[in-house]
Design goal:
Number of helices: 6
Radius of gyration: 18 Å
Number of strands: 7
Strand content: 25-35%
Helix content: 25-40%
Strand order of the largest sheet: 4-3-1-2-7
Distance between the termini: 30 Å
InterPro entries: DUF8205
Organism: Mycena metata
Protein name: DUF8205 domain-containing protein
Order of helices and strands: HHEHEHEEHEEHE
Pfam family, one: DUF8205
Protein backbone atom coordinates (compact mmCIF):
# COMPACT_ATOMS: atom_id res chain seq x y z
CA UNK A 1 0.00 0.00 0.00
CA UNK A 2 2.97 2.31 0.62
CA UNK A 3 3.83 2.40 -3.09
CA UNK A 4 0.23 3.11 -4.04
CA UNK A 5 0.20 5.98 -1.55
CA UNK A 6 3.42 7.37 -3.07
CA UNK A 7 1.84 7.15 -6.54
CA UNK A 8 -1.26 9.01 -5.34
CA UNK A 9 0.80 11.74 -3.70
CA UNK A 10 2.90 12.30 -6.81
CA UNK A 11 0.14 11.90 -9.40
CA UNK A 12 -2.36 14.09 -7.54
CA UNK A 13 0.32 16.53 -6.28
CA UNK A 14 -0.95 16.10 -2.72
CA UNK A 15 2.14 17.64 -1.10
CA UNK A 16 1.41 21.06 -2.60
CA UNK A 17 -2.32 20.67 -3.28
CA UNK A 18 -3.95 18.20 -0.84
CA UNK A 19 -7.39 19.41 -1.96
CA UNK A 20 -6.76 17.67 -5.31
CA UNK A 21 -7.97 14.49 -3.61
CA UNK A 22 -11.49 15.99 -3.50
CA UNK A 23 -11.69 16.62 -7.25
CA UNK A 24 -9.55 13.83 -8.71
CA UNK A 25 -9.09 10.11 -8.35
CA UNK A 26 -6.34 7.72 -9.30
CA UNK A 27 -6.97 5.33 -12.19
CA UNK A 28 -4.71 2.26 -12.07
CA UNK A 29 -4.73 0.24 -15.29
CA UNK A 30 -3.57 -3.32 -14.67
CA UNK A 31 -2.86 -6.30 -16.86
CA UNK A 32 -3.80 -9.73 -15.55
CA UNK A 33 -2.01 -11.68 -18.30
CA UNK A 34 1.62 -11.04 -17.32
CA UNK A 35 3.57 -14.30 -16.87
CA UNK A 36 5.13 -14.58 -13.41
CA UNK A 37 8.33 -15.77 -15.13
CA UNK A 38 8.58 -13.52 -18.20
CA UNK A 39 11.96 -14.88 -19.33
CA UNK A 40 10.85 -18.51 -19.01
CA UNK A 41 7.65 -17.70 -20.88
CA UNK A 42 9.56 -15.94 -23.67
CA UNK A 43 12.09 -18.75 -23.97
CA UNK A 44 9.31 -21.35 -24.20
CA UNK A 45 7.47 -19.32 -26.85
CA UNK A 46 10.66 -18.83 -28.91
CA UNK A 47 11.21 -22.60 -28.81
CA UNK A 48 7.61 -23.22 -29.93
CA UNK A 49 6.65 -24.72 -26.58
CA UNK A 50 3.76 -24.17 -24.22
CA UNK A 51 4.67 -22.08 -21.18
CA UNK A 52 5.54 -24.66 -18.49
CA UNK A 53 4.45 -22.33 -15.68
CA UNK A 54 0.84 -21.13 -16.01
CA UNK A 55 1.30 -18.63 -13.16
CA UNK A 56 0.40 -15.04 -13.99
CA UNK A 57 0.69 -11.86 -11.96
CA UNK A 58 -1.10 -8.55 -11.77
CA UNK A 59 0.98 -5.94 -13.63
CA UNK A 60 0.50 -2.19 -13.25
CA UNK A 61 0.49 -0.68 -16.75
CA UNK A 62 -0.49 2.91 -16.06
CA UNK A 63 -1.43 5.18 -13.18
CA UNK A 64 -3.10 8.48 -13.96
CA UNK A 65 -5.12 11.29 -12.45
CA UNK A 66 -8.71 11.63 -13.66
CA UNK A 67 -11.68 13.73 -12.55
CA UNK A 68 -13.47 12.08 -9.65
CA UNK A 69 -16.75 12.37 -11.58
CA UNK A 70 -15.53 9.47 -13.78
CA UNK A 71 -15.73 7.08 -10.82
CA UNK A 72 -19.06 5.36 -10.18
CA UNK A 73 -21.63 7.15 -8.01
CA UNK A 74 -21.37 4.29 -5.48
CA UNK A 75 -17.58 4.73 -5.27
CA UNK A 76 -17.95 8.50 -4.79
CA UNK A 77 -20.53 7.91 -2.04
CA UNK A 78 -18.24 5.40 -0.36
CA UNK A 79 -15.35 7.88 -0.66
CA UNK A 80 -17.38 10.63 1.05
CA UNK A 81 -18.55 8.24 3.80
CA UNK A 82 -14.99 7.03 4.43
CA UNK A 83 -13.71 10.62 4.58
CA UNK A 84 -16.51 11.54 7.00
CA UNK A 85 -15.70 8.51 9.19
CA UNK A 86 -12.20 9.91 9.75
CA UNK A 87 -13.57 13.11 11.30
CA UNK A 88 -13.72 11.52 14.75
CA UNK A 89 -10.23 10.04 14.53
CA UNK A 90 -6.71 11.42 14.59
CA UNK A 91 -6.67 10.98 10.80
CA UNK A 92 -9.18 13.70 9.92
CA UNK A 93 -6.54 15.85 8.21
CA UNK A 94 -5.08 12.99 6.13
CA UNK A 95 -5.90 13.20 2.42
CA UNK A 96 -8.33 10.50 1.30
CA UNK A 97 -7.84 9.12 -2.20
CA UNK A 98 -10.29 7.22 -4.38
CA UNK A 99 -8.54 4.61 -6.53
CA UNK A 100 -10.19 2.95 -9.52
CA UNK A 101 -8.56 -0.27 -10.76
CA UNK A 102 -9.23 -1.13 -14.40
CA UNK A 103 -8.27 -3.80 -16.88
CA UNK A 104 -9.11 -3.71 -20.60
CA UNK A 105 -10.98 -0.44 -19.92
CA UNK A 106 -13.35 -2.19 -17.48
CA UNK A 107 -13.51 -1.31 -13.79
CA UNK A 108 -12.35 -4.12 -11.51
CA UNK A 109 -12.82 -2.37 -8.18
CA UNK A 110 -12.88 1.07 -6.59
CA UNK A 111 -11.42 1.72 -3.15
CA UNK A 112 -10.79 4.69 -0.88
CA UNK A 113 -7.93 5.00 1.56
CA UNK A 114 -6.29 7.62 3.75
CA UNK A 115 -2.77 8.67 2.78
CA UNK A 116 -0.56 8.23 5.82
CA UNK A 117 1.97 10.83 7.06
CA UNK A 118 5.04 8.63 6.34
CA UNK A 119 4.65 8.55 2.52
CA UNK A 120 3.67 12.25 2.56
CA UNK A 121 6.94 13.00 4.37
CA UNK A 122 8.84 10.77 1.91
CA UNK A 123 7.51 12.86 -1.00
CA UNK A 124 7.95 16.17 0.82
CA UNK A 125 11.63 15.36 1.36
CA UNK A 126 11.96 13.99 -2.21
CA UNK A 127 13.88 10.98 -0.89
CA UNK A 128 14.99 8.57 -3.61
CA UNK A 129 13.07 5.38 -4.26
CA UNK A 130 14.87 2.27 -3.04
CA UNK A 131 14.52 -0.83 -5.19
CA UNK A 132 15.58 -4.45 -4.99
CA UNK A 133 16.59 -6.26 -8.17
CA UNK A 134 17.46 -9.90 -8.64
CA UNK A 135 20.19 -8.86 -11.08
CA UNK A 136 21.70 -5.72 -9.59
CA UNK A 137 20.73 -5.97 -5.92
CA UNK A 138 19.56 -2.95 -3.93
CA UNK A 139 19.73 0.52 -5.43
CA UNK A 140 18.17 3.96 -5.48
CA UNK A 141 16.39 5.96 -8.17
CA UNK A 142 15.04 9.51 -8.11
CA UNK A 143 11.51 9.68 -6.74
CA UNK A 144 9.07 9.88 -9.66
CA UNK A 145 5.74 8.42 -10.74
CA UNK A 146 7.51 6.14 -13.20
CA UNK A 147 10.09 4.77 -10.76
CA UNK A 148 7.42 4.11 -8.13
CA UNK A 149 5.28 2.20 -10.67
CA UNK A 150 8.32 0.20 -11.80
CA UNK A 151 9.25 -0.52 -8.18
CA UNK A 152 5.68 -1.65 -7.45
CA UNK A 153 5.78 -4.03 -10.42
CA UNK A 154 9.19 -5.30 -9.31
CA UNK A 155 7.80 -6.04 -5.83
CA UNK A 156 4.92 -7.99 -7.39
CA UNK A 157 7.30 -9.88 -9.69
CA UNK A 158 9.64 -10.79 -6.81
CA UNK A 159 6.79 -11.94 -4.54
CA UNK A 160 7.45 -15.63 -5.21
CA UNK A 161 5.60 -16.70 -2.03
CA UNK A 162 2.50 -14.71 -3.15
CA UNK A 163 2.11 -12.83 0.12
CA UNK A 164 0.39 -9.99 -1.81
CA UNK A 165 -2.04 -12.49 -3.39
CA UNK A 166 -1.42 -11.07 -6.86
CA UNK A 167 -0.48 -14.38 -8.54
CA UNK A 168 -2.78 -16.99 -9.99
CA UNK A 169 -2.55 -20.08 -12.17
CA UNK A 170 -4.59 -20.00 -15.35
CA UNK A 171 -5.78 -23.22 -16.89
CA UNK A 172 -5.63 -22.83 -20.62
CA UNK A 173 -5.76 -25.05 -23.67
CA UNK A 174 -3.77 -22.50 -25.66
CA UNK A 175 -0.01 -21.97 -25.75
CA UNK A 176 -0.35 -18.70 -23.83
Amino acid sequence: MYHLQLCAILELDLVDRPANAFDHCLYVAVDTEMPADPMGHLQARLNGQVNPDPTYILWVRRIEKKPIELASPAARDSYRAFKASLSTTGMSDWPVVLVVFTTNNSVITEISYAVEPKPMQHCREKRPSTYLSGMSGRGELPLSKETIREDLNNLILMDKSNQYLLRTKFKSNSSA
